[in-house]
Amino acid sequence: MTTTGSKGTRILGGVTLVLLAVVTVYGLWLTPADVEMGDNVRLLYIHPPIATAMFIPVVLTAVGSLLWLVKKSVWWDLVALAGAEIGAVLVGLCLVTGSLWGRATWGTYWDWDPLLTSTALLFLMLLGYLALRRVPAEPEVRNRRSAVVGLAIAVNVPIVHFAVDWWRSLHQTATVSTLDPKIDGIQLLTFALGFLAVLLATAWAMIHRFRLAWLEDQLEATFLETAVAERRLEAGVSP
Amino acid sequence: MTLAAADAYIYVGWAATGVAVVVYGISLVQRGKRAAAQVPEGKRRWSDPS
């Protein structure tokens, strides 16, 4: 085993790539323009799936942080780390695709409305979490600090998710999460395939990032063991 | 706004997403390969240590 891949992740990755290609062809060329939004609707085949999938790794960061505090299990700390990095990528993409959609439809890239502001805050919190993990400290101290921040991030999740319902916003409310979706036919199919593709991509990335975090943790432990052994030798203490 | 200008936002959005997915995916695999090459054979298996 010289990679973080396995037979399962290679199959998952292959299916994800095929699905992403299908969604791209449908989203950009095969689906018709929307009656109201025109061609701008094509951005909605990627933006809402990303905006929904981003909650999964962020919630996993919170769950991992909580379980590290409870069980002191390195495994859960690494789940939290993987979730934060994947979450930062997805939230960043959500902000980029959302601002482009906003510019095309509202005429502005940005507005300080509750949804956009809380999403930007979520992005900054995730970057803060990742930066905090890079601050030199004992593993136990670093994990505890990270877990506290990981739990603090969780507070923002419901605010982002329900912002369009709780406050007046430029942003529209849910389009397909109701029993009577406002789109149908090939548009709904493309939308559904977009969701599936982004969910599978998120799962693939989470598995790889977790395994990478595991290997990095082993490297750190090996480095610490070697450093301690060298110091003991220098001090004339037998190992 | 002209249709061409609107199209540009669509393509930039899709392109940004595609590039980010591909670049991040490749970087994950490469970082994994580098880390795996440095970790001793017996410590490469990930499992819940608790």
Q: How would a textbook summarize the main sheet of chain A? A: none
Poorly predicted regions of chain B are none
Portion of residues within helices of chain A: over 70%
Instruction: Briefly note the structural class of the backbone of chain A.
Output: mainly alpha
* Quaternary organisation of the protein chains: heterodimer
Question: What is the averaged pLDDT score of chain A?
Answer: 90
- Main beta sheet of chain B: strand number and arrangement? none
H and E string of chain B: H
The N- to C-terminal Cα distance of chain A equals: 31 Å
Structural class of chain B: mainly alpha
Give the beta-strand count of chain A.
0
Distance between the termini of chain B: 59 Å
Rg of chain A (CA only): 21 Å
Q: Proportion of β residues of chain B? A: under 5%
Shape of chain A: elongated
Question: What is the CATH top level name of chain A?
Answer: Mainly Alpha
Write down how many β-strands of chain B occur, each being a DSSP E stretch of 2 or more residues: 0
DSSP strand content of chain A = under 5%
And the CATH topology of chain A? Four Helix Bundle (Hemerythrin (Met), subunit A)
Q: Indicate the overall shape of chain B.
A: rod-shaped
Describe this structure in words.
The complex is a heterodimer of chains A (239) and B (50). The model of chain A has no long low-confidence stretch (mean pLDDT 90). Chain A is 74% helix and 0% strand. The longest helix of chain A is centred in the last third of the chain and has 50 residues, at 185-234. With 239 residues, chain A is mainly alpha-helical. Chain A has seven helices and no strands. Chain A has one domain (7-229): Four Helix Bundle (Hemerythrin (Met), subunit A). Chain B is an all-alpha fold and 50 residues long. Helices cover 72% and strands 0% of the residues of chain B. Chain B has one helix and no strands. Chain B is rod-shaped and about 55 Å long. The A-B interface holds A 1-5, 13, 20, 24, 27-28, 38-40, 42-43, 46-47, 50, 71-76, 89, 92-93, 96-97, 100-101, 103-104, 107, 201, 204-205, 208-212, 214-216, 218-219, 221-222 and B 1, 3, 6-7, 9-14, 16-18, 20-21, 24-25, 28-29, 31-33, 35-40, 43-50.
